[in-house]
Design goal:
Blueprint lengths: L3 E7 L5 E2 L6 E8 L7 E4 L5 E4 L4 E8 L4 E3 L5 E8 L2
Antiparallel strand pairs: 1-8, 2-7, 3-6, 3-8, 4-5, 4-7
Length: 85
């Protein structure tokens, strides 16, 4: 059974996971349009990927606890999707 996932994740100067426990999901990750600077997504290879305000990325069957982003305090990301299991 698939469950709806809707999250607002508050970012900080250090990397913050999109979810605290392991949840495999299909979702869209969106940097809030009110952010004042690019958020930084941590790539699986350790590289940093800039995400400008309002930008969306689609993920299919990815563990939300492994997706991490950072920015200055007060910025946020949105996660909307469903569990994949």
């Amino acid at each position: 059974m698939r469950n709806l996932i809707t999250l607002k994740v508050d970012l900080d100067n250090g990397y913050v996971p999109m979810f605290g426990t392991s949840v495999v999901a299909t979702f869209t990750l969106t940097a809030a349009h009110t952010n004042t600077q690019d958020a930084i997504l941590e790539g699986t290879d350790g590289k940093e990927i800039p995400i400008p305000p309002g930008t969306q990325y689609y993920f299919e069957r990815v563990d939300l606890s492994k997706v991490k982003a950072k920015s200055k305090a007060g910025e946020s990301m949105f996660v909307v999707g469903h569990s994949a299991e």
